[in-house]
Amino acid sequence: MLKISFKQGTILIKGNVRVPNSVWDERSESFRAPAMYYRDITTYLRESGIDFEDDALDLLPCPDLAAAYEASGKKLKLRDYQAEALISWGENGKRGVLVLPTGSGKTLTGIRAIAGCNTPALVVVPTLDLLEQWKKELEEAFSMEIGKLGGGDKKILPVTVSTYDSAYIHAETLGNRFGLIIFDEVHHLPAAGYRSIAEFSAAPCRLGLTATYEREDGLHTELNRLVGGKVYEKKVSELAGGHLAPYTIKRVSIALTDEEQKEYEKKYSVFLDYLRKTGMIMRSPQDFQKLVMKSGRDPEARKALLARNAARDLAFNSDSKIEKLREILEQHRDDRIFIFTEHNRLVHRISNSFFIPAITYRTPSKERSSILEKFREGRYRAVVTSKVLDEGIDVPEANIGIIASGTGSKRAYVQRLGRILRQKEGKEAVLYEIIAEETTETGTAKRRKEAVSTRKKPDKAEAKSQEGVSRADI
C-alpha cells in the first residue's frame, strides 16, 4: 500500500505512484514533495481511488478549542466585515489572505479562525511586540497557556505564537505538528528564507492577515502558492468613520532655504546627468537595485548614487521642516502624536530639538515598552520614530501622525496611517505630511497617497517636479 510520511519539511511518498508536485528522490527511494502540498497530495489520492496510509501529520494533542473559546467569557461578536472575511476564507477551503486595515480587528478574526478550525494552530508574527500582543489575546480568548517561540523562549503548545525568524529556524521540525498556520503581516512571508516556513509546513489550513498585500518588489504573487492568495479585502476609506476613527490627510509643503535648494539641485543634477549619459531608466525598485550593484564596480555610478543620497538627505533634514514641525506640535499641544521619519538622523534631531522620546531599531526592548506605556498614559504626548513602529503597535490614544520624511512605499504609508486610526470615542485623526517643494519628495508623497485615494493625473507643476524621476523611490 502507498504510504506518505513527513520528513524535514517534505512529504515522502513510498510506492509506485507519482503524485502532483513530487520528484523522485534517489536517497530515500521514494517520491518527495514540499510539505505544503500535503493536502493537495491526499486529495489527489482520494479522488483517484488510491488506497494509502497517512503518517504525515503528527498533530500536537489539543483540547477542544471551540469549547474553550465559548467557555472563556471573552467571545466577542464579529463585525460584519470580519464575518464576511471568514466566510470567504472558508469558501476557499480555509486558505488565503484577508486584507484588512490596521485597527480593524485582524487579531480577533484570527482567533475566530482558530476556534472554528479547532485544530493545533501556529501563529507567525514579525516582531516581539506582536508576539506578546497575540499571546496575551490568545490567553484571554481560550483561558489556556499559549506557547511562545522567539525572544529566547521555546515552548511549543497546541496554540503557539512564533516570530518569523524562529519559525524559519524550526520549520523542519514543526511542519507537521499544526493543522492551522496563521501568518500575521503576511507580506513578510515571500521574503527569501521566510517562504520556507510555509513550504515546510503540512498544515492543511492557512490564513494570511495584512493591511498591505502588495509588495514593491512584486513578490506578493508568491502568496498565491504559499497561502492561497487574496480572498477578501477592505480598504481604510471603507471603514473610516465607522469601525475606524474618521481621518483627514493634510499635505504641508515647505521650501528649502536658498542655500539648501542650491545645494540640492547641484547634487541631484549629478545623479540625473549620469542616468541620461548611460540611458538608465528607473521604473521600479529592481532598476534602482541594478544601479546600486553597478556602483560597486563603476566609480561614476558610485558618484551618482552618493550625490543622489546627499540630495535626499538635504530634503529630508531641511531646517524648514523643523520649523514647520514646531508649528504643528504647538497647534496640537493637547493631542497624542506619532512622528515618522525615514532615517535615524532626523529622529535624533527632532528628539533633541523638542525633547521628544525616540524609538529606533537600537532602542532596547524595555526602554521601548516604557516609552510606549508612558505615551498611552499621557505622560509623553509625542514619540518620534523611524520605521520600527510601522507594524504591531496598538495605541488607540494616538490621534495625530506626522510624516516628516518617508519613501513612496504604499505599504509603509497605510501602516503609518493605521497607527492613528484605532477607534476611541470622540476621536478624529489627522495625518500630516511635510513635503519639501521642488524635490523628489513631491512625487514620492503623491505615489504613497495612491494607497488610500483614487489616482488622478498630475497637474503641470507636479509633472514638472517629477521630470526625470522614476517610479522607483529614487
From TrEMBL:
Residue span, Helicase C-terminal domain: 321-467
Record-listed E.C. numbers: 5.6.2.4
A GO molecular function held by the record: DNA binding
Signal peptide location: none
SUPFAM superfamilies, per the entry: P-loop containing nucleoside triphosphate hydrolases (SSF52540)
Domain of life where this protein originates: Archaea
SMART domains: DEXDc, HELICc
Xref: InterPro entries: ATP-dep_DNA_Helicase (IPR050615), ERCC3_RAD25_C (IPR032438), Helicase/UvrB_N (IPR006935), Helicase_ATP-bd (IPR014001), Helicase_C-like (IPR001650), P-loop_NTPase (IPR027417), XPB_DRD (IPR040699)
Swiss-Prot/TrEMBL catalytic activity: ATP + H2O = ADP + phosphate + H(+); Couples ATP hydrolysis with the unwinding of duplex DNA by translocating in the 3'-5' direction
Chain segments carrying region Disordered: 441-474
Family per record: Belongs to the helicase family. RAD25/XPB subfamily.
Helicase ATP-binding domain: residues covered: 87-231
Name of this chain's protein: DNA 3'-5' helicase
Biased composition (Basic residues): 445-458
Stored PROSITE patterns: HELICASE_ATP_BIND_1, HELICASE_CTER
PANTHER family per record: GENERAL TRANSCRIPTION AND DNA REPAIR FACTOR IIH HELICASE SUBUNIT XPB (PTHR11274:SF0), RAD25/XP-B DNA REPAIR HELICASE (PTHR11274)
Any Pfam family: XPB_DRD
Keywords, alphabetical: ATP-binding, Helicase, Hydrolase, Isomerase, Nucleotide-binding
Native source species: Methanosarcina mazei SarPi
Biased composition (Basic and acidic residues): 459-474
